[in-house]
């Protein structure tokens, strides 16, 4: 199903298609034309057709898209049919915020545990238990873990990534302001959220918008 | 300085240049060739030259880049010479995590206050005070606010965005899983962080990586 020549930009747009199709399903809409989807999503119909053609199309001439089928197909493309177990390194505010995001579990992402080095944060009795970082190998040998989240300060990010990899974790969701990609084996996938860089992008756009006046 | 024809991809890369140049400065490096910067950043030298040419270049033949000057110039392009005041709607975990990110204030982003509707969260005595949402107009009439952060549940996101806009706020940093862009005037800039979509992108890449084996 996945196509290794699909551009990063298309991949980034897939979750958005998935979200809008989910909303249409909730509204009871059964089919939609690419023009209708285009209007709803504020992208051109031609972009939608091009994006979906990367995966074989899915539309039927004159009929348009069957909303439920397309939602399901994009879910498969995104791998959402396979539930994923997650552990989070760092039981600080970012980690806690992630553990409280209700939409993750809806899509099959299950947060199993936190790991931290601060004795004051360790609490194995919590709904999502917080264990000592030193027990991570033991935990991952007994539990299948698909994704490791790095929510520790930047200076510990590389060490944490290497611990994850030693434990056999093949996917890292990174919130530290470092670029892990060059430092990990090719079969480990990284997705980073660099909040301060997002804020700087906003700052750029503020300046650009003011200069347009 | 800003150029309205600069692509979004280039703009997204600018904060990363800024970060690496800052690190080089901290290491005492005074000049660097585009080849040297390329090796450090794991992008091609030609990409670096192309990206920076959008803003006039900055490199000198044979000499390369003066690290401090280029860091400063990119900071100006990003508007980091203008400190920005921020308020956060929603004093939950995401909001708290943002308020504790030490690197924001280093770059001139100052979080002035939280606003929330939950009486249990309101506490005007805190270091970063938490006020009742109803007092936001009064606050923004007395304080210059450059950026409003939406860290409220998705169903309140549009209402919050409209409140920000009524208060004269021209830039929104949005953490709710909604697309605000089509709903706001053209002179309001939006930057969104859609965490569950980032997680889905990671899920896609896990699947693609497994299929390559």
Distance between the termini of chain A: 47 Å
Low-pLDDT parts of chain A are none
Number of DSSP strands of chain A? 8
Whole-angstrom Rg of chain A: 20 Å
The two chains with the largest interface, and their residue counts, are: A-B, 62 and 62 residues
Number of helices of chain A: 9
Order of helices and strands of chain A: HEHHEHEHHEEHEHEEH
Beta-strand proportion of chain A: 15-25%
Write a short abstract of this structure:
Two copies of one chain form a homodimer. With 213 residues, chain A is an alpha/beta fold. The first copy, chain A, has helices at residues 8-26, 34-41, 45-53, 67-77, 93-99, 102-106, 136-142, 157-166, 195-212; strands spanning 31-32, 65-66, 84-89, 109-116, 130-132, 147-150, 171-174, 189-192.
Describe this structure in words.
The structure is a homodimer of 213-residue chains. Chain A is an alpha/beta fold. The first copy, chain A, has helices at 8-26, 34-41, 45-53, 67-77, 93-99, 102-106, 136-142, 157-166, 195-212; strands at residues 31-32, 65-66, 84-89, 109-116, 130-132, 147-150, 171-174, 189-192. Chain A has a 6-stranded parallel beta sheet. Chain A has a two-stranded antiparallel ribbon with strand order 1-2. In chain A, strand 6 (147-150), helix 8 and strand 7 (171-174) form a beta-alpha-beta unit. Chain A is globular. Chains A and B meet through helix 1, helix 5 and helix 9 of A and helix 1, helix 5 and helix 9 of B.
Topology:
The structure is a homodimer of 213-residue chains.
Chain A: H1 8-26, E1 31-32, H2 34-41, H3 45-53, E2 65-66, H4 67-77, E3 84-89, H5 93-99, H6 102-106, E4 109-116, E5 130-132, H7 136-142, E6 147-150, H8 157-166, E7 171-174, E8 189-192, H9 195-212
Parallel strand pairs in A: 3-4, 3-6, 4-5, 6-7, 7-8
Antiparallel strand pairs in A: 1-2
């Amino acid at each position: 199903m996945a196509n290794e020549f699909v551009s990063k930009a298309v991949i980034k747009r897939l979750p958005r298609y998935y979200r809008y199709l989910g909303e249409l399903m909730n509204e009871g809409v059964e089919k939609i034309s690419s023009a209708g989807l285009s209007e709803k999503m504020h992208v051109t119909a031609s972009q939608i057709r091009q994006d979906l053609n990367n995966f074989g199309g899915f539309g039927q001439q004159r009929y348009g898209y069957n909303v439920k089928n397309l939602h399901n197909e994009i879910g498969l493309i995104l791998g959402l049919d396979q539930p994923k177990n997650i552990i989070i390194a760092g039981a600080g505010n970012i980690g806690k915020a992630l553990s409280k995001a209700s939409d993750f579990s809806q899509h099959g992402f299950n947060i199993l545990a936190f790991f931290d080095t601060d004795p004051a944060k360790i609490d194995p009795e919590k709904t999502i238990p917080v264990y000592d970082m030193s027990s991570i190998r033991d935990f991952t040998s007994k539990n299948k873990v698909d994704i490791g989240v790095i929510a520790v300060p930047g200076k510990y990010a590389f060490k944490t990534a290497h611990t994850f990899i030693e434990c056999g974790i093949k996917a890292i969701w990174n919130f530290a302001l470092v670029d892990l990609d060059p430092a990990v084996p090719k079969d480990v996938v990284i997705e980073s959220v660099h909040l301060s860089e997002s804020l700087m992008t906003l700052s750029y756009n503020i300046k650009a918008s003011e200069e347009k006046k």
